[in-house]
Specification:
Layout: H1 9-21, H2 23-33, H3 45-49, E1 61-65, H4 71-80, E2 83-88, H5 91-100, E3 105-109, E4 122-128, H6 137-147, E5 148-160, H7 174-181, E6 185-190, H8 192-208, H9 210-216, H10 219-228, H11 236-242, E7 244-251
Parallel strand pairs: 1-2, 1-4, 2-3, 4-5
Antiparallel strand pairs: 5-7, 6-7
Helix pairs in contact: 1-5, 2-8, 6-7, 8-10
């Protein structure tokens, strides 16, 4: 597969180069999300901390699907001592991750649906706004199920209304249907209101560092942040009619 044909591939290659160098973006992430994990999306520290109870100490192995530059995995390892594994289609992201984290860590460049791991390798598999990249969601969930150890957990932050179309509720999403199709029992939490409030913080933080973005020559990234948060200029009732965000936890 030609990576350049993948959704947002070129943009993410540029994004991770920027994220490594831009002080404005690092300050923005810390303020908007509570921690700088080089986020391009919606995963704040409260969502990431929801993963911690599923990690049973330093012997646990956790895989992050679409791990970016590994900062979230690094945080989880710092908190628990676990082994960390990640793959991402961005070679720039994987290069940065491999340089940052060398202890009990494994990072590879790979594409959803083409990357493979041995059966029953992981105690926890995380996907923070990356399940959308699966061309065949049921087939990818089947693959994840194979990778999980017995009793292992998939933790997925999943949003509708942007990449994925908005459906009726948390039971009708493409991901929920794929989990049921693969006989995976799951719990789901609707965090749409929390996401609306987080997006307000995101917009405020972007505006706070506007001048620093401009001075760095990163005005285009500032413009992107404003575009990403335009949706919160509407009341929550209108926002929630168009967008929704859920946390799914599925146990093998």
């Amino acid at each position: 597969m030609n990576k350049k044909d993948l959704l947002f591939y070129d943009a993410y290659e540029e994004f991770y180069l920027m994220a490594e160098k831009s002080r404005a973006f690092q300050l923005f992430c810390a303020e908007a999300f509570g921690e700088d994990f080089s986020q391009d999306g919606f995963s704040d520290i409260s969502q990431v901390n929801m993963i911690l109870p599923f990690i049973a100490g330093e012997n646990a192995h956790i895989l992050d699907i679409g791990c970016g530059n590994g900062k979230m995995l690094g945080y989880l390892q710092e908190k628990t001592g676990c082994h960390i594994h990640g793959f991402d289609f961005s070679e720039n992201a994987i290069k940065a991750a491999a340089q940052k984290y060398t202890r009990r860590a494994d990072f590879i460049a790979g594409v959803i649906g083409e990357t493979e791991y041995a059966p029953e390798s992981f105690d926890v598999i995380t996907s923070m706004d990356t399940m959308y990249f699966a061309k065949d969601m049921p087939a990818f969930v089947e693959q994840i199920k194979k990778w999980l150890k017995p009793g292992g957990v998939l933790f997925a932050a999943y949003q509708e209304g942007d990449v994925m179309p908005k459906t009726a509720d948390e039971t009708t999403t493409v991901l929920a249907k794929a989990l049921r199709q693969n006989s995976l029992q799951y719990e789901v939490k609707n965090i749409s209101l929390q996401t609306y409030r987080m997006l307000k913080r995101k917009r405020e933080a972007a505006l706070k560092y506007e001048k620093l973005f401009e001075n760095e020559g990163n005005k285009s990234w500032f413009d992107m942040l404003l575009w990403q948060t335009e949706c919160i200029t509407e009341p929550y009732e209108q926002f929630s009619a168009k967008m929704a965000r859920y946390i799914y936890t599925a146990k093998k």
